[in-house]
């Protein structure tokens, strides 16, 4: 089933392919009405030990979702707001061009 919704595209189509998959649709609304759950990036940060060296520490927006650019040591990559990595986005020694994967709102 193919659904195209321009209004919801920024949040539901992180692959920027004009197709909203079931996974993308469900992720968009997974946290909307449930105050018991923390946004995914904030939840991941609460599970980590900030004192451990060499461990990946996710970068979050103020509202608790993942920032588009994530880096660990000398390697960086692009993710959607739920932390899912875009294929072939990893680069070494520089920031990736995450804008090619869609529009992100970082706060």
From TrEMBL:
GO terms for biological process: establishment of protein localization to extracellular region. It is found in: Secreted. Keywords: Disulfide bond, Repeat, Secreted. It comes from Ascaris lumbricoides (Giant roundworm). Residues 38-98 form the Thyroglobulin type-1 domain. SUPFAM superfamilies: Thyroglobulin type-1 domain. Disulfide bonds join 41-60, 78-98. This is Thyroglobulin type-1 domain-containing protein. GO terms for cellular component: extracellular space. InterPro entries: Dev_reg/Prot_inhib (IPR051950), Thyroglobulin_1 (IPR000716), Thyroglobulin_1_sf (IPR036857). It holds the Pfam family Thyroglobulin_1. The keyword ATP-binding does not apply. It comes from the Eukaryota.
């Amino acid at each position: 089933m193919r659904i195209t919704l321009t209004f919801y595209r920024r949040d539901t189509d992180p692959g920027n392919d004009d197709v909203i998959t079931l996974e993308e649709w469900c992720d968009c609304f997974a946290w909307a009405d449930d105050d018991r759950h923390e946004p995914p990036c904030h939840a991941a940060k609460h599970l980590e030990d900030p004192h451990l060296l060499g461990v990946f520490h996710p970068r979050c927006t103020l509202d608790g979702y993942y920032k588009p650019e994530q880096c660990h040591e000398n390697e960086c990559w692009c993710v959607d707001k739920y932390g899912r990595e875009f294929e072939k986005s990893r680069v070494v020694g520089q920031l990736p061009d995450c804008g090619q994967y869609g529009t992100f709102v970082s706060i």
